Amino acid sequence: MTESLLDRRARLMGPNIPTFYRTPVHIVRGEGVWLWDSDGRRYLDCYNNVAHVGHCHPRVVAAIAAQAAVLNTHTRYLHEGVLDYIDRLTATLSHGISQAIMVCTGSEANDIALRMAQAVTGKTGIIATDATYHGNTMAVSQLSTRRQPIGGRWPNVRLVPAPDGLRPVGGDVAGQAQTFAANVAAAAQDLENAGFGFSCLMICPVFANEGLPLLPSDFLHPTAATVRAAGGLMISDEVQPGLGRMGSHFWGHDALGFAPDIVTVGKPMGNGHPVAAVLARPDVMGAFREVFGYFNTFGGNPVSAAACLAVLDVIKDEELQENAACVSAYLLDRLRALRHPFLTEARATGMFFGVEFTTDGLTPAGDFAGDLVEDLVERGFLLNRIGRGANILKIRPPMPFSIKHADLLADAIQAALDTA
Amino acid sequence: MTESLLDRRARLMGPNIPTFYRTPVHIVRGEGVWLWDSDGRRYLDCYNNVAHVGHCHPRVVAAIAAQAAVLNTHTRYLHEGVLDYIDRLTATLSHGISQAIMVCTGSEANDIALRMAQAVTGKTGIIATDATYHGNTMAVSQLSTRRQPIGGRWPNVRLVPAPDGLRPVGGDVAGQAQTFAANVAAAAQDLENAGFGFSCLMICPVFANEGLPLLPSDFLHPTAATVRAAGGLMISDEVQPGLGRMGSHFWGHDALGFAPDIVTVGKPMGNGHPVAAVLARPDVMGAFREVFGYFNTFGGNPVSAAACLAVLDVIKDEELQENAACVSAYLLDRLRALRHPFLTEARATGMFFGVEFTTDGLTPAGDFAGDLVEDLVERGFLLNRIGRGANILKIRPPMPFSIKHADLLADAIQAALDTA
Which of A347, A322, A320 has the alpha carbon at shortest distance from A33? Predict the structure, then answer.
């Protein structure tokens, strides 16, 4: 069965279609933090942040079904749904961020955010880290180092070394925040010298794709000051940390204590329904909308808005942010207590965990972590790897993940480590 | 109520949020070809192609609700849904086009299509018409002339004069197809001379945004030959003509009798669910996927696939393509029989109609057409305008639009014209 699906994928989707795991799983059903494959095998989902409030949450499903049966059009007509949602979502934000453009994917949101910064500053230079991923449009994929962009990287993009808790930029943990900021300042100056000017730094506030490094909570303060001083905008890509996952805060940038000019969010917003948003202050939004008459046909449609409103309701009613804070502390303790010679560091930022494996405290044990992921899939636990060396377990479960689930996972990882 | 919603939009969405009509309508319910506003007023929808098989079609709603309750993940796991859909959709295509990438918006689809052409040719030059719209990512918006792109238009883009039945490119109706092709050839050569090289022509096969001009059915044959001879790819943007709307054919390029290398489709695919696709031959798909590991989190998810499969089922079972052919001929006759001194030409390509108004056979009567649209809204008919002079009624209803609806619309237009 699985073989035949892989054959069909190759025939219908072409080569290099990404799958997870050496033997890709064929998932047919989901409920809460659980997924089932076509053989009836159950997996604990320790990875998927799209199903933010749990797979197939009945309130989200009901909201989608109800609204789809009544109306699904676009924002060229007036409708309360999109307004109710933006009202609710912006109420969770500070720093004067009170307006939104609704779109369908995080890539679309980041593609707009880059243009917003260009509209505000009149400049085109962009800075990101050299181990990140912000999306897949032609423009946003310029910020990815996984593959060289088609046609070569644009000359107005600068990638600065990503921070790392074990291998600090500049070689010194204590000075890393200043070094990172200094590198951003140098890149901004370089963009000015090259004639592009500096428009923005786009950043995931917890450096999720970079490996979720353990950093001081004020790590980004010097960088935020640097960006401001250089006349650029700070874009906080909250696709991974946003919507309560931090536990301590609803947004990553609030946990890190800096004021972004633009916030983008996507995957978790609609619990699987394709929806994303760019959030900004009115001055930033106005600068963009004055020069670009952006309209997104599907963006903010009544069904998307209904799904998103239901997600906010569930986060609140089921106290999922509070659960994230609680489970974060509990599971981090359990992960730190795991025993294996290669286990170098376990870390967490809310309901998002990294467990780093090295052979000697520094050298990434990527193959080891890869085998561990596969072993855990065999044991019925879905997770994956991040980091430059692909040596860090990435644990980013749906938000209803509980203490009980944390115990199941920690026990399974230890059992896998014991036989590794 | 309407005033308050407009105020909320300005506060929450910022300035220059596009709406239809001088007094924007507040739509709260839809069913088939009908929409209702918050006062219970009913409108005949003569415009929306997103609700391709009719607003809130029960089979599509049921498919979405059922699948959303069972599973909604992504294509890194195996699932039949996306494969069943690509199988069914590619079966409607010829010219060796047998593979697809599923995404969420037509903009994303066109953004990928441009990169596919660049991957195949190793060149970056793009040609489009000078009165088109293909989407709103940073890259695709370079092809729009509505607003100058932020940061200026890229140097690798050339826009050729759009064809027009009344004001032919080159001044001669009989020679327009050759002149248009010659302009494409010159632009391709210019891109080669500039060092970008020529990668593709992106085109809507019926020139929908350009004004749906009345052109011979073999109009694009010389252009297709020219593009091929110049080593470029032909991208057929089928967001408007595709999925049976042509009546005579399932796809616009088949109605026009040319072989595209890449086909993109979006709005109508999921009847409002945010889904779109890029379709290509295996050699084109392979060239792209070898150099760019594209993955779209929401693209081709089980719910999107279920919605899209239901749309194909309804098109077939309710014979909507056949209905389009039938209603196209009938409504075109009725539109041609309308009487007003400014009425210059009524035209149709399947379930897509343009009614052009000029003051003297050539000078666009844009204000007149604008007033007419507003009058028709007052009468309970939703449509809009296209064309460089915004002087062409755009009638592009959901596909279940019937002879009865055509009569209602034609009668209403004549009544409006009688008092104009």
Answer: A320
CB B252 within 8 A of CB B204: yes
The domain containing residue B413 runs over which residues? 2-53+319-419
* A80–B291 CB contact, under 8 Å: no
Nearest CA-CA distance, residue A78 and chain B, Å: 4
Tokens of A54: 């749990």
* Structural domain total, chain B: 2
CATH of the domain at A158: 3.40.640.10
Task: Tell me the pLDDT tens digit for each residue of B289-314.
Answer: 999 889 999 999 999 999 999 999 99
Q: Is residue B152 located within the same domain as residue B230?
A: yes
* B146 — pLDDT class (breaks 50, 70, 90): confident
Q: Taking CA atoms, what residue in B is nearest to A275? A: B274
Interface touch B136/A296, C-beta < 8 Å: yes
Strand partners, B37: B27
Domain CATH code at residue B334: 3.90.1150.10
Domain ends where: A253, A286, A317?
Answer: A317
Angle at A90 between CA A84 and CA A91, to 5 degrees: 90
Instruction: Report the length, in residues, of chain A.
Output: 420
- CA atoms of A117 and A123, how far apart (whole Å): 8
A298 and A351 within one domain: no
Residue B334 has a CB neighbour count (10 Å cut-off) of: 19
For B298, the closest chain A residue by CA position comes to: A274
Q: Tell me, yes or no, whether B7 and B154 share the same domain.
A: no
Compute how many other C-beta atoms are within 10 angstroms of the C-beta atom of residue B151. Answer: 18
E-strand stretches of A182-326? 198-203, 233-237, 262-265, 276-280
Say if residue B142 is in the same domain as residue B222: yes
The gap between the terminal CA atoms of chain B, to the nearest Å, is 29
| Domain shared by B215 and B350, yes or no | no
State the amino acid at position B201 in one-letter form: L
Whether B30 and A71 lie within 8 Å, measured CB to CB: yes
From B271, B285, B291, residue closest to A14, measured CB to CB:
B285
Cα Dmax for chain B: 61
A 10 A CB-CB count for B199 gives 28
Alpha-carbon span A141 to B68, nearest angstrom: 30
Q: Considering only CB atoms, which chain B residues are within 8 Å of A26?
A: 77-79
The answer to whether residues B192 and B254 belong to one domain is yes
User: Dihedral, CA atoms, A176, A177, A181, A184, nearest 10 degrees?
Assistant: 60
Q: What is the pTM of this model?
A: 0.97
pLDDT in tens, B38-73: 999 999 999 999 999 999 999 999 999 999 999 999
| Residue among B71, B82, B138 whose CB faces A111 most closely | B138
A-chain CB neighbours of B82 within 8 Å are 13
The tokens of A334 are what? Answer: 């359990």
Same structural domain, B185 and B333: no
Report the alpha-carbon distance of residue B157 to residue A53 in Å, rounded: 44
How far is it, in rounded angstroms, from Cα A127 to Cα A100?
A: 23
Residue A177 host element (H or E): helix A176-193
Sign of the alpha-carbon dihedral angle for B30, B36, B42, B44: negative
Name the residue of chain A whose CA is nearest to B277's CA. Answer: A13
Q: Whole-angstrom Cα distance, residue A101 to residue A294?
A: 9
Last residue of a domain, one of A290, A317, A344: A317
**Residue A348: which of A370, A320, A327, A322 has the closest Cα?**
A327
The ipTM is 0.97
